[in-house]
Amino acid sequence: MTHMKFISWNVNGLRAIVKKDFLTTFNTLDADFFCIQETKMQPNQLTLDLPGYQQFFNSADRKGYSGTAIFTKHTPQNVTYDIGTDEFDHEGRVITLEYPDFYLVTCYTPNSGTGLKRLDFRMGWEQVFQDYLDSLNASKPVILCGDLNVAHEEIDIRNPKTNHHNAGFTNEEREQFSQLLSRGYTDTFRYFNPDATDRYSWWSYRFNARDRNAGWRIDYFVTSNRLQDHLVEADIKDQIFGSDHCPILLTTKDLHV
Fold first, then answer.
1. Where does Mg(2+) bind (predicted)?
2. pLDDT range class, residue 1, cuts 50, 70, 90
């Protein structure tokens, strides 16, 4: 039985976190696939020495903003960037790797912003991105990971009552995540931990939020339902520091690369 480990982490600036303990953490986790969001860099701004890994970057047109990366031990059959709609394809938000048994998609979902000024953009993104996932899923199962910028249910946020109109916990965003799952996908952390409380992946830098564990669960591994028999473990690595997010983990079995 072959197990594979997937890690996803919004690092809030790859160049910044590399100056901390990123490489130690990276080597300790020893993942087959290490997916990163919010790289905040162009590929020529950093050279990472990661023996045994292939590196794929998708950077925003705007420097120091957004961006994604995947580091993998397994050579993909195909690599694509973005989601094929010009309105949404300038911020480096998606990378897709194709393997014999699945697609791996890392995503940094647009934040609706202060005062929800980008909520309309976000809602447009949701429709196009979910259709994109379905187009992949029609061919082979999907493993989606990343900072999806939504706490799905009240159990996924420390202070639900005071956040209902804040970006990441609006009814509109939460309904979009419900809609995604209804299309045939599994929130893997909830699959293994349906009732777990106080498990978060992001904490504001303000008000000592992480010390108080006043967090949000907005980072996910979401998989096609038909991969459920291949799921071994999903976890949140909340003892790992270096960003305002922590890494999340998915372990699978018997998938061919």
1. 10, 38, 147, 149, 244-245
2. confident
